[in-house]
Amino acid sequence: MITLRNVEKVYPLKGGPFYALRNISLTINEGDFVSIMGNSGSGKSTLLHILGLHDSAWGGEYTLLGEAVHKLDKKRRFELQKKHIGFVFQSYHLLDDLTVYENLEIPLSYRDIPKKERESVVCDVLDKFGIVAKKDLYPSQLSGGQQQLVGVARALIAKPSLILADEPTGNLHSDQGREIMKLFKQLNAEGTTIVQVTHSAENATYGTRIVRLADGVMVG
Amino acid sequence: MISDLRLALRSLLSAPMLHDLRRALRSLRKTPGFTAIALLTLALGIGLNTSMFSVLNTLFLRTLPYADPDGLVRVYRTGLRGQTQLPHAPANFADLRAQSRSLTHLAALTVTRYNFAPPGQPALLLRGMNVTADFFPVLGISPALGRVFGAEEDQPGRDRVIVLSHSCWLTRFGADPAIVGRDLRLDGENVTVLGVMPPRFDDARLWGPVDAWRPMAFSAENLQNRGGNFLTVIGRRKPGVTLNAAQAELSAISARLAIAYPATNALTGINLMPLARSGEDPTIRTLTWFTLGLAGCVLLIACANLANLQFARNLLRARENAVRAALGATRLQLIRHSLAESLVLALCGGGLGLLLTLWTNDALGSRLQLNGRASLEIPPDFRVLGFAFALTAFTGLAFGLLPAWLAARVDVSDALKQGTRGGTGGRAQDGIRRTLIVAEFALALVLLSGAGFFIRGLERFATRDLGWRAEQALTASLNLPARKYGTDDAQRAFYDRLETRLGALPGVERVALATSLPFSGYTWSQRFVVEGRADPAPGAEPLRAVNVVSVGFFETLGLGLVEGRTFAPSDATNSDARTVINETMAKEYWPGESAVGKRIAHPSNRAAWQEIIGVVRDVRFATNVSEARPRLQTYRMITREPDSRVSIIVRSALPPEALADALRRAVAEIDPDLPVQDIRPALQTIESGLANFAALGALLAGFALLGLLLAALGIYGVIAGFVAQRTREIGVRLALGAQVRDVLRLVLRQGFTLALIGTGLGLFGVFAVGRLLASMLPALPAPEPATAASVIVLLLATALLACWLPARRASKVDPMVALRSE
Ligand SMILES: Nc1ncnc2c1ncn2[C@@H]1O[C@H](COP(=O)(O)OP(=O)(O)O)[C@@H](O)[C@H]1O
Ligand SMILES: [Mg+2]
Q: What are the DSSP calls for B265-290, one per residue?
């Protein structure tokens, strides 16, 4: 599904170029559940943003679902991202002014899905995640675990084949974290490819594979 | 809140306040960008308003420069048809003066001109007033040099004396200290200078600029005259006598006179008014208030902007305030600190505004005219200073209080937990900031439409069809002195020679003489009755304007004939007088039939029927903004009713200004002692007659642009703040699939909605301003919806542009950077 060949990311700093990532070659197959681990500052988020097509200023080759990302223009990358990728953030990034329902609806509204259809999709997901009762609440009225649940639901709502999660449990208690991991596990079992960044060895065990980074270089 | 406010205000005066002030100064110095914008906004807002107030003050509020000005009154006569400001006849004035006990002095005056012939120099005109001897005691000002005239000189034959004004003494006589006792050649006779008045007496508000005063010197015949009303009468109340008491007494006297002389005095009364108010032009007065009101709108917009800036500043300081509160600062102390900053800003801004006022007053004064004086001095006095100070204090509180109040409402635990972004009450503040923007746009629309309506109306007024042609016309006036031209025949002979001579000048196509020119209105009106119709009640007869003109008047003006004919030389010797009337009169009195051949007469002289021989088009008065529809206009022949004051109209093939010298020479060849006054192309007279309005238009346009700019800045600031606050949200949206146009739309909608709501509310203001203008200046063409539509488009386009900049920035948010800031 994903092939990286000699991917590198350079920040031109005052003191000279700084390699946030260097020489990353990596293959991720459909159905994988990969955990990226490494110290703070080792380049995990950088890698994830490259995978998620947020970043376009990097070197090397990146093939996603058969498309050579490094050759695509901005517009095509954007379409690719919209179609296939869902994002989960460490600090959830739910929109404060919107209800749970409305938060879930955002990705759909950006994908020109008619209102009727959106309604049924959102209701399905609310149901599946067991948060129907919370649909009219605002994020501030939810616990952290519940917020991240919504965050995951939102990432899934447009039915991506790849989920990227940057420390999804970083702000949660371990119980809540486990809930999310179980959810990931289940999604993975249903066929979604998942790449998560995590600090926790326990979380990594839910995955099928671990990629370790140190100072921007893969170390296993 | 009120009690907190009171406490806050009281503590403003206490010693710790000094500390707050110093701290405010320091924090303002640390944010020079904010401080500069705030000061500029304040200086403009306060400066403009103070300047407008200075104009109002100069025109209407400043006390008159006379002794105990509150005791001075203007005595008007009232008429049956609701007129409240009529002049008096000499005999009635003499009776009022003799019988009144509530007024210490009563003086009569007329404004006039004197032909002054300095030895060896061309004759010139002095602006003068003939006044009764009481005039100087009424006003209570002593001369700076010599003396004024008394009752002994206020008699025919002994009246060859004159008192000069300070400015005349300065400009015409080089401030000659030995002027008293000198003889001047005035209107063909020698007149002795008695004295010179002090500079403070030169006040143009009541009677325009005056060069000299001479005795009224009523003749015995004049003192029998009750029918010719031409005197302005002023008086001074006895100390302790109220205006109402004086009014009652004079009314009683007038009632007795009405019984004694019913033919002339029936149904007339007395109307007393404080002298200071009597010189006011109601149109100018309401226009000045209107302008001050619009200037107030500018200030309110400025205040709203400043409040928004202050909110944004407080948001950044929320954490600081929370920490202070955690350390034990009371709410009052927090309010005081924030308020101190606003007040320091307002004070500095007010100071700058005052400086600005000095400059704008000069700029404005040089473009304004008052009573024929080419510029208006607008000195700032204590009242202006007081106004500026009050405005400054108001402004400081207006934009400082609410932000200070909200900033002090910190929830310590919340603010400290939420981190740097933690603004408590952020939502409430957002609401207020948006409300302020809405208000700004409503006010800006009022400003824009006010200026738009006025400027557009003036433009249409200036280019409307006058019914006559002002192009290529040169006008001038003469004042034939009674000594030389005392008889009708002398005047007639002079007219004759003048017309012949002017007609022979190269380039002159037509020449005409008239007692009135069609600029601001025909100066004279008379009652009339129509032959064969039922008489209205005596005194209730309709009024018609009268212009006494020469045969060539209509052709020279290019005033079209509708029916019948205009005057022919033979009409001068006809036994019946003949008259030409305007279309409006013909339609009103003879609808559906011809007015030609009908006859009208003065109610008190029904034997002298005047036959209507023709109907001409209505004359629209080029500079008269208060006459909505043409009134009844009639013309009579100048050869039948010669007048000492006569205007010349010359239509030329050359540019009219090129003829001025030739005209002056032609008059001098007939009579070298006769000065020609006001030689000017008609277009120039019109232009200068509308100069005040043009200046006002420019001023209003300035206000409107400033309002627009401030509103744009305001919405820009709020939307930029919105974008800054929501960078993360925008990043999330982008990460979730939003496209650039989605983000643009999100941000633009935020701003544009506010602008739209404001504009919608402002529509009420647009309507009100339109109505107000129409009632103030009925002659101005009614406001057009198209003008309103175009200012609305301008306003909304500006709003869109102002929101576009932050929206662009929002669409460039890099989700990576935005999201990384975890
Ligand atoms: N915009 C930037 N400019 C320069 N250096 C950056 C920038 N963003 C990240 N870095 C650096 O790149 C390295 C990798 O960052 P990141 O991928 O966020 O690490 P992490 O593994 O903790 O997620 C870090 O050393 C970080 O300081
Ligand atoms: Mg990271």
A: HTT-EEEEEEHHHHT--HHHHHHHHH
Cβ–Cβ < 8 Å for B577, B640: yes
pLDDT above 80: residue B228: no
As a whole number, mean pLDDT of residues B553-565 equals 94
A32-54+84-218 CATH pick, 3.60.130.10, 3.40.50.300, 3.40.50.2000, 1.25.40.10: 3.40.50.300
Consecutive H or E run containing B148: none
Tens digit of each residue's pLDDT (9 = 90 or more) over B600-628: 998 878 888 999 999 999 999 998 887 77
Q: Quick one: CA torsion of B695, B701, B707, B710, rounded to 10 degrees? A: -100
Contacts of A158 in chain B (CB under 8 A): 737
Lowest mean pLDDT of B206-210, B326-330, B519-523, B685-689, name the range: B326-330
Query: CB–CB of B740/B424 below 8 Å?
Result: no
Answer for the pair B404, B338: CB distance below 8 angstroms, yes or no.
Answer: yes
Tokens in use for A209? 């594979």
Helix (H, G, I), strand (E, B) or coil at B349: helix
Cα-Cα-Cα-Cα dihedral sign, residues B350, B356, B358, B364: negative
Coil, strand, or helix at residue A114? coil
Alpha carbon distance B615, B560 (integer Å): 9
A 10 A CB-CB count for B645 gives 13
Would you tell me the crossing angle of helices B32-56 and B382-407 to the nearest 10 degrees? Answer: 140
Decide: A42 in ligand 1 pocket, CB within 6 A. Answer: yes
Respond yes or no on whether ipTM tops 0.95. Answer: no
- B161-172 tens-digit pLDDT: 999 999 999 999
Which of B736, B745, B822 to substitute to test the interface with A, most A CBs within 10 Å? B736
> Cα(A215)–Cα(A20) distance, rounded to whole angstroms?
7
Distance from C-alpha of B801 to C-alpha of A119, rounded to nearest angstrom: 36
* Token digits of residue B603: 């109610």
Instruction: Give the separation between CA B732 and CA B353, rounded to whole angstroms.
Output: 46
Q: Across B187-252, where does the E strand assignment appear? A: 189-196, 212-215, 232-237
H-helix or E-strand spanning residue A88? strand A85-88
Rounded distance from Cα A43 to ligand 1 centre (Å): 6
Q: Which candidate, B318, B333, B514, places its Cα nearest to that of B419?
A: B318
Find the mean pLDDT for residues A61-71.
93
- Burial environment of residue B563 by CB neighbours within 10 A (0 to 12, 13 to 18, 19 or more): middle
Across B29-149, the runs of DSSP E, i.e. the strands, are 72-78, 103-116, 124-131, 145-146
Find all residues with CB under 8 Å of B275, minimum gap 6, and list them. B64, B69, B72, B73, B74, B206, B234
- The mean pLDDT value for B322-334 works out to 70
Residue % of chain B over a pLDDT of 70: 93
φ/ψ of B591, rounded to 5, equals: -65, 135
A106 neighbourhood in chain B, CB within 8 Å: 733, 736, 738
Nearest CA in chain A to B738: A110
* CA B556/CA B551 separation, integer angstroms: 10
Handedness of CA B710, B713, B717, B722 (dihedral sign): positive
Q: List chain A residues with CB under 8 Å of B417.
A: none
**In this model, does residue A114 exceed pLDDT 50?**
yes
- Pairing verdict, β A162-166 and A193-197: parallel
Q: For the ranges B179-188, B446-455, B791-800, which has the lowest average pLDDT?
A: B179-188
Distance between CA atoms of residues B461 and B458, nearest Å: 5
A146 within ligand 1 shell (Cβ under 6 A): no
- Judge if pTM exceeds 0.80: no
